[in-house]
Design brief:
elongated; single chain; mainly alpha; 303 residues
């Protein structure tokens, strides 16, 4: 990862040169080309960070080799997309990330969550924010400090706890979330491939059919647990067993004589690879499609 460098008396691209001066005095296209040119001097990038065109400033904001003097003022740029570009830039300093994670615009804050330069100090701010989505993005972080994970286990938002349940690697956090009173949180755990056999056995006996069905569709279970689910009182759960890609065929065939004809038919007609068993997708941290407007990464809205 590159680091921001203050420009002192010397610069590896010393001076802006006559050509650079001509470009900065020219039109937007010329200045944009200069901002994107790997050979452009740091001093010129600093000048371009104050360019009247947001397109040019955005180009400077995306550069991993941009000097600190260029990126610093861009964290306060009036154009949201410029600030968002700085928030994504892996060379942005921690001080600037701490400023941007408190930005008034949610997309800027969410972009900080995906920056590989984020450290514990930034994550602490994220854990304390009122922005539910930002806390949710934090919950999806792989390298989450135990203290912060413990805070999220008790988060007021079931969605945040659910996202933690799906993505956590911490056995202690998983054990704590097994006791969560909200079914969607336990359902998130059921989809987590990092649960232990003991965790899965507990989830296989969850009182909510949605949880048991999610479990059998998502992860491989011990045969003892599967035999219980084959005889589950819920048609939804037995249908999940009949259509799961991770259930051994000899157990699926037990359901070929199920009293529910839809379950029996699904078991008899099952073909590997033809189903649509849910998978745990990688976190969409701070991602926004080009031209996207309202809403968060995923399907929620609001700050």
């Amino acid at each position: 990862m590159g680091k921001q460098q203050d420009v002192g008396g010397t610069d590896r691209h010393s001076g802006s040169g006559a050509a650079a001066q001509d470009a900065t005095d020219g039109g937007v296209e010329a200045r944009l080309a200069l901002a994107q040119d790997p050979g452009t001097a740091h001093l010129t990038l600093i000048d371009l960070a104050a360019d009247p065109s947001p397109v040019v400033r955005r180009a400077v904001a995306t550069r991993a080799d941009a000097p600190a003097q260029a990126l610093r003022p861009l964290t306060r740029d009036h154009d949201r997309e410029v600030r968002e570009a700085v928030a994504r830039n892996p060379s942005t300093s921690i001080a600037n990330l701490l400023r941007l994670v408190k930005d008034a615009d949610r997309w800027v804050r969410w972009a900080v969550a995906g920056n590989p330069a984020c450290d514990e100090s930034v994550r602490r701010v994220m854990a304390q924010t009122a922005d539910k989505e930002l806390r949710g993005l934090l919950a999806e972080s792989r390298d989450l400090e135990p203290e912060l994970a413990a805070r999220l286990v008790a988060d007021v938002s079931p969605e945040v706890r659910e996202r933690l349940a799906i993505h956590t690697h911490d056995p202690e956090v998983i054990t704590a979330l097994l006791a969560d009173r909200t079914a969607r949180v336990r359902k998130g755990l059921a989809r987590n491939p990092r649960t232990t056999a003991a965790h899965r056995s507990a989830l296989a006996q969850d009182p909510v059919p949605d949880v048991r069905a999610a479990l059998v569709l998502a992860v491989a279970l011990d045969e003892a647990d599967l035999r219980l689910l084959v005889d589950d009182r819920s048609v939804q759960v037995r249908m999940a067993v009949a259509t799961s890609e991770v259930v051994p065929s000899h157990l699926r065939q037990v359901l070929a004589d199920d009293p529910d004809e839809m379950v029996a038919g699904a078991a008899r007609e099952f073909r590997p690879g033809a189903g649509a068993s849910p998978v745990v997708r990688a976190p969409r941290v701070g991602h926004r499609a080009a031209g996207a407007g309202r809403g968060r990464p995923g399907n929620n809205t609001g700050r």
